[in-house]
Amino acid sequence: MADIHTPDEPDSVADRPIGTRSFIYGAKTLATAVVAFILAIANDGDTEAAFWVLVSAGVLGVMFSLIERTTTRGAEVVSHRRVNLDVLGTVLLAALVNLVVHIAQR
Q1: Distance of CA 6 to CAs 11, 12, 19, Å?
Q2: 84 contacts: CB under 8 Å, gap ≥ 6
Q3: In Å, how far from its chain's centre is CA 36?
Q4: Of the candidates 7, 10, 11, the residue with the CA atom closest to the CA atom of residue 80
Q5: pLDDT in tens, 17-44
Q6: Is residue 11 within 8 Å of residue 81, measured between CB atoms?
Q7: How far apart, in whole angstroms, are the C-alpha atoms of residue 5 and residue 11?
Q8: How far apart (Å, rounded) are the C-alpha atoms in residues 99 and 46?
Q9: DSSP H helical ranges for the chain
Q10: For 80-94, how does the pLDDT look when each residue is reduced to its tens digit (9 = 90+)?
Q11: 16 vs 4, 13, 31, 97, 98, CA distance in Å?
């Protein structure tokens, strides 16, 4: 049974096709990867591991979106606040991986 959402629900956006949430997550994560890439260039590759984590997560998000759209019918409510929290969690994971790689290389 589908979840029922009311129009006055905070941060809810109108129902979107299945896969929209994954696509938005992937796109925002890939945009963050561009920032990590610029930082990696600026600091001689010290944040390269974070860049690769963000690229991987972003590509997975976009790919899951394509899979969901081609195999599932229906709609979902997209919460941008929730997607932003997911992206923030991914950025924190990328920073942690980068820290571990940096310490391991010493």
Answers
A1: 11, 8, 21
A2: 28
A3: 14
A4: 11
A5: 888 889 999 999 999 999 999 999 999 8
A6: yes
A7: 11
A8: 9
A9: 20-42, 48-71, 80-104
A10: 888 899 999 999 999
A11: 14, 8, 22, 33, 35
Q: Is the pTM of this model over 0.90?
A: no
Q: Choose among 84, 101, 87: nearest CA to 57.
A: 87
Distance separating alpha carbons of residues 25 and 65, to the nearest angstrom: 9
Tokens representing 8 are: 């006055």
User: Does an H or E element contain 75, and which?
Assistant: strand 75-76
- What letter would DSSP give residue 12? B
Tokens 């974070």 correspond to 50
Nearest to 98 by CA among 39, 42, 11, 58: 39
Tokens 């945009």 correspond to what residue? 31
For residue 10, give the amino acid letter.
P
